[in-house]
Amino acid sequence: MRIGVVGAAGRMGSEVCRAVAAADGLDLVAAVDPARGGRTLGELAGVGGGAGELVVADDLEVLTEAAVDVAVEFTGPTSVGANLCWLLDHGIHAVVGATGVSAQDLDVARALAADGPANALLAPNFALGAVLLMRFAADAARHLPHVEVVELHHDRKVDAPSGTALRTAELIADARDSTPEVPLGDDDHPGARGTVHHGVHVHSVRLPGLVAHQEVILGGEGQTLTLRHDSYDRSSFMPGVLLAVRGVAELDGLVIGLEHLL
Ligand code: NAD
């Protein structure tokens, strides 16, 4: 399988380059990152072997020139939607880790994946433990509908709340029968109760030293239940990314959530 990485010089992209280069049966043949075009993956991402000689390109055309089968997208909220649509429009299967695809771009991508030869897998979190946390949270919310989500990330993260927190809130909202009414606090301190997504309060913490962490706290009569997942290192996302790369061609159109491949 011929693989390309978009956002190859970023924190996640360079980790993906190293993981793909080391994986059996996957050939890293193209890398795109306009901020670092012209330098090699060896220099930028510490990729060894032949793939380390690959020169990072400025634009997506290199993916078609290299006959890429699957592209992995880890750029950011301002570019991910357009990149996803471009990949599908060019018949390239897309594994998308960057969060923040707009509803409009998602509609276009869904239609391209339904009508064209390429599929897409979008996952707000590729860590298997986080996927399980989302599932356990939805199960628990059926019995304990009072739930708040606290997500904690490194201080360079651009978007807030995290895509994982938003997805967790949506799964909780789908699973529980009722949405508890809780006071929102006073007008002098907006935000004290976090943001509300699909009726679920979500709180975002940004601190150096953190990577990606999430707690789901459920409250009941005289009790609480806390579910927590911690990614201490970006390597935690790589088994999920490789699973998605290997499985995306077998999916039907555009799918959201790694759980579809577990
Ligand atoms: P980063 O800023 O370190 O890297 C992003 C890279 O994308 C940069 O090198 C930038 O130059 C490049 N880029 C920007 N626009 C581009 C474009 N149009 N084409 C190609 N490359 C472009 O960010 P990061 O920490 O690696 O995170 C990237 C994204 O992944 C964020 O949206 C983050 O929230 C998300 N993320 C997802 C998961 C997951 O499991 N799904 C895990 C961690 C982070």
In short:
The chain has 262 residues and is of the alpha/beta class.
Structure, explained:
- By secondary structure, this protein is α/β, with parallel strands linked by helices.
- The protein folds into two domains: 2-122 and 235-261, Rossmann fold (3-Layer(aba) Sandwich); 128-231, Dihydrodipicolinate Reductase, domain 2, CATH 3.30.360.
- Helices cover 31% and strands 23% of the residues.
- It has helices at residues 11-22, 41-45, 61-65, 80-89, 103-115, 128-141, 163-175, 238-247, and strands spanning 2-6, 27-32, 70-73, 93-96, 120-122, 146-153, 195-197, 200-206, 212-220, 223-231, 254-256.
- It has a six-stranded parallel β-sheet, with helices on both faces. Strands 7-8-6-9-10 form a five-stranded mixed β-sheet.
- A hairpin with a 2-residue loop joins strand 9 and strand 10 (223-231).
- The longest helix is centred in the middle third of the chain and has 14 residues, at 128-141.
- It is elongated and about 60 Å long.
- The two termini are 20 Å apart.
- The model has no long low-confidence stretch (mean pLDDT 96).
- Nicotinamide-adenine-dinucleotide binds next to helix 1.
Tell me the name of the CATH class of the largest domain.
Answer: Alpha Beta
Through-space gap between termini: 20 Å
User: Percent range for helical residues?
Assistant: 25-40%
- Shape category: elongated
User: What structural category characterises the helix and strand content?
Assistant: alpha/beta
Uncertain segments:
none
Output the CATH topology of the largest domain. Rossmann fold
Main sheet characteristics: 6 strands, parallel
Give the strand tally.
11
In N-to-C order, the SSE pattern is: EHEHHEHEHEHEHEEEEHE
Strand content: 15-25%
Which ligands appear in the coordinates?
Answer: nicotinamide-adenine-dinucleotide
Q: CATH H level of the largest domain: which superfamily? A: NAD(P)-binding Rossmann-like Domain
Oligomeric organization of the protein chains: single chain
> Count of DSSP helices?
8
- How are the strands of the largest sheet arranged? 2-1-3-4-5-11
Mean pLDDT over the full residue set: 96
